[in-house]
Design goal:
Elements (H helix, E strand, L loop, with lengths): L1 H29 L3 E5 L5 E4 L1 H7 L3 H4 L4 H5 L9 H8 L3 E9 L5 E12 L5 E10 L1 H37 L6 H33 L7 E3 L1 H19 L2 E5 L7 E3 L1 H17 L6 E8 L3 E7 L32 H11 L3 E7 L3 E9 L11
Length: about 375
């Protein structure tokens, strides 16, 4: 009877171990990272579905093959992380390298490796988990490019300002009023360009650090828009562009950060002017519903390529038609962050050659964290 019971216990234990093994396999197969295991001779013993997708080989095609032959990692020949984990019997974590898929495409990855030991401490192989960080690396490159462009543009404006200030100082007595006014106009334009550049960069820095703080208070969008309308009139006249403000019905006060909202509308107006030409119209219109208010800024510029529309608010995004007017791809990302921080949304409609309409939708009442009030 005891033997029988022992046998039953053993069978139950074996069944439990088998079930545990199946559960572990299920977890590894479901992980959104590539996972492979090797034996002590560095031959692949398992290859999960995510690894199959990333590398392009099925598990069946990889089993028994040398891992370096499949992954073709950037560190395979010099300092193989898997071999290091096996030799030292210690995990190797947060290491960056590259691998190649079966089509020869190089993929940057972040990997973790560890030796696999049995219950007695004997070596049975090693495991490697790796994740595609192509998008992260692309973001880092864009960030480096942004800093480089920021420094270049800032230096360019400062050089222009410095040059014309020096002319005014050295030749003040010889300059007529026309030239003096021209020089001062150039200085003013470059100063405005610098101000916009620095504001965008600071906005980007806050986005990156998560320190975009909003100072909510009773805000009149009508007042903010009227002030911006008046402020942009000289620019409109100088550019030969007609600026219109269509808000026949007064909007109610909403709870918002007026300084941040001014930044939103400034960025959108700057974009509209940037891509509009003489004789075109830029219009600002408002609308109210039961729960929301919206502000639309419409231009008659060159429009946005349909392929770029889904990514237009992404940080660093510069469309297919990017040129010296496009900027660094920070302004619209900042707009989106501020509007969403208010519990709102920003949308865009555009057709190439027919202009664009950006619409900011804001809630009339702000829900507090405790679920009450506005």
């Amino acid at each position: 009877m005891k033997k029988h019971r022992k046998g039953l216990v053993q069978d139950a234990g074996s069944e439990k171990n088998f079930q545990n093994l199946d559960f572990y396999k299920f977890i590894i197969a479901s992980l959104p990272v590539g996972v492979l295991t090797v034996n002590p001779k560095m031959r692949i013993t398992s290859f999960n579905p995510w690894a199959e997708t990333l590398i392009g080989y099925s598990e069946k095609e990889t089993l028994g093959r040398y891992c370096g032959e499949v992954l073709q990692g950037g560190m395979c020949k010099l300092h193989c992380p898997l071999k290091t984990a096996i030799d030292r019997r210690q995990p190797v974590v947060w290491m960056e390298s590259t691998i190649q898929n079966r089509h020869g495409e190089v993929i940057p990855i972040r990997m973790h490796t560890a030796a696999l030991l049995n219950n007695e401490g004997g070596l049975i192989g090693a495991v490697e988990a790796f994740q595609d960080i192509s998008s992260l690396k692309s973001m880092e490159r864009e960030k480096d490019n942004l800093i480089s462009m920021f420094a270049h543009d800032m230096k360019s404006s400062l050089s222009i300002i410095g040059g014309f200030v020096l002319r005014l100082l050295r030749k003040a007595a010889d300059l007529d009023e026309v030239k003096e006014e021209k020089y001062l106009g150039i200085i003013q334009n470059e100063t405005e360009k610098l101000d916009s550049l620095v504001s965008d960069f600071l906005g980007f820095a806050r986005l990156q650090t998560g320190k975009l703080k909003l100072n909510f208070q009773a805000t009149s969008l009508d007042k903010e828009l009227m002030e911006l309308f008046d402020a942009y009139q000289p620019k409109a006249v100088q550019s030969g562009i007609k600026l219109e403000l269509k808000n026949e019905k007064a909007l109610p006060l909403i709870e918002a950060d007026p300084d941040r909202m001014r930044r939103v509308f400034t960025n959108l107006l700057d974009n509209a002017f940037k891509f509009s030409t003489k004789g075109k119209i830029i219009s600002i219109s408002t609308e109210e519903t039961v729960r929301e208010v919206s502000v639309s800024i419409k231009d008659e510029g060159r429009g946005i390529d349909p392929d770029d529309l889904p990514f237009i608010f992404d940080i660093f995004h510069r469309g297919k038609q990017a040129d010296e007017k496009t900027g660094q791809g920070i302004g619209l990302a900042t707009v989106k962050a501020i509007v969403e921080g208010h519990g709102g949304k920003v949308t865009v409609r555009s057709k190439p050659g027919q202009g664009s309409t950006f619409t900011v939708v804001l809630p009339k009442f702000r829900r507090l964290k405790n679920g009450g009030g506005f």
